[in-house]
Structure formats: structure tokens, C-alpha cells
Design a protein that fits this description.
Elements lengths: L1 E4 L4 H13 L4 E4 L10 H4 L9 E4 L2 E4 L1 H11 L10 H34 L6 H21 L13 H7 L5 H4 L7 H10 L3 H4 L11
Length: 210
């Protein structure tokens, strides 16, 4: 498997951390997101969305970070990270879909305003943050309820659901995510941050964040 990625981006970190969690070996090809390397014709031939990451395995060209995690887990038989039990797997799949459709877009607002803009020398737009707050707290409340009495989202051990859900909030202190009312999320993300796969893929130093 060959992964085309930039380790500084949310979905690329997600995949690399997930691969480490499941013990999946891969070749790597670094694509510089900030110089728009993902728009190069040779990369667009792999992922016509011109988005990162993408995986090539033989004749398979696979994009969408959560699909990459699912494929790799099955390929290396990572039964802890992506259990075969039908109901457990359905639960994990549900959170992967929810992350992509709901959780990522909301967390991303805080990432852009409080991390990306300052890195580019721009000021956060407080009206944008204020406008996102209600949706964020609604979504965070759903996740917080799921985590009540649990160490991880779907099973007693971390799965690709935990990696996927943690990724959009991976710089939560710099993003200034309003997590104060959501104690279960705060406890859970602290556990994720203790995982070797998460520590090994820390993005903050790559972005010059203290």
C-alpha cells in the first residue's frame, strides 16, 4: 500500500494514526498541501477530487480517509481496530459516516478560524465562531452521551472510530473548541492522546504551534 499524504492535515493524520493503531505497513509519498501539490495532474489521476489523502494498492486507487481505514483494517486483519462482529462494525461505520458528514464540518470551522487564519496572518471572525456554536454543542452532546461510562466510542479498546472522530479535533486546544460542558469528550480525547499512534503523529510541531 502506498499512501499519498501531507502529515499536517486532518484526514492525513487520521489515516497515518489509524495505520499505526492497526499495525499496517505502507509506503509513503509526501504531497505538500500548502503548495497545492494535490492539484498536480499526476496526483489528480489518482484522486480526481484533488484532495488528500489517497491510497494506491496494486490496481486500486482509493480516496476518502475513512474508506482507506476500513480497507487497510480488513487487509491486515486488524480485528481489534475494526472488529468483524456485525453489530460492532455497524456501530463503527455509523460513527465514520457521522464524522465525515457532521463532526468534521463543525470542528473544521474552529480549525480554520483559530488555527489556519492566524498561521496565515489573518484574524479569526468571531461572528463565524458564534454562528457555529449551537451546531457544535448539539453534535458534541451526541458524542458526549455516547461516551458516558465508556473509555472509547464503540468498544473497550480504541478502534478506527476513535481515530476518525478525534482527527477533526486533533488541535482542540489551539482550535479553542468549546469542550467545557462536555466532560465525557474531554476524558475520552485525553485517552486518545495517550495512544502511541496519536503521540507519534502530533501535528502541532509541524505547524509551529507550541
Amino acid at each position: 500500500m502506498k499512501l499519498y499524504y501531507d502529515p499536517r492535515t486532518v484526514n492525513c493524520r487520521k489515516v497515518v494514526a489509524g495505520f499505526q493503531l492497526m499495525g499496517a505497513d505502507f509506503e509513503s509519498e509526501n504531497i505538500d498541501y500548502f503548495t497545492q501539490g494535490q492539484q498536480a495532474p499526476e496526483y489528480v489521476a489518482i484522486n480526481p477530487n484533488a484532495a488528500l489523502p489517497a491510497l494506491v494498492d496494486g490496481d486500486l486507487k482509493l480516496w476518502e480517509s475513512n474508506a482507506i481505514l476500513q480497507y487497510a483494517a480488513d487487509k491486515v486483519d486488524a480485528s481489534s481496530a475494526y472488529p468483524q462482529d456485525l453489530k460492532v462494525r455497524a456501530d463503527i461505520n455509523r460513527w465514520l459516516l457521522w464524522e465525515a458528514s457532521a463532526w468534521f464540518p463543525s470542528c473544521y470551522v474552529y480549525l480554520v478560524e483559530n488555527v489556519v487564519k492566524p498561521l496565515l496572518g489573518a484574524e479569526p471572525d468571531q461572528s463565524v465562531l458564534d454562528g457555529e456554536a449551537e451546531r457544535f454543542h448539539k453534535l458534541a452532546g451526541i458524542l458526549d452521551a455516547q461516551l458516558a461510562g465508556k473509555s472509547f466510542i464503540c468498544t473497550s479498546e480504541p478502534t478506527i472510530a476513535d481515530i476518525a472522530m478525534a482527527a477533526p479535533m486533533h488541535l482542540h486546544s489551539h482550535q479553542k473548541l468549546p469542550l467545557e460542558p462536555h466532560g465525557n469528550i474531554r476524558s475520552w480525547i485525553a485517552r486518545v492522546e495517550e495512544l502511541p499512534c496519536w503521540k507519534n503523529t502530533d501535528v502541532a510541531p509541524l505547524l509551529g504551534l507550541g
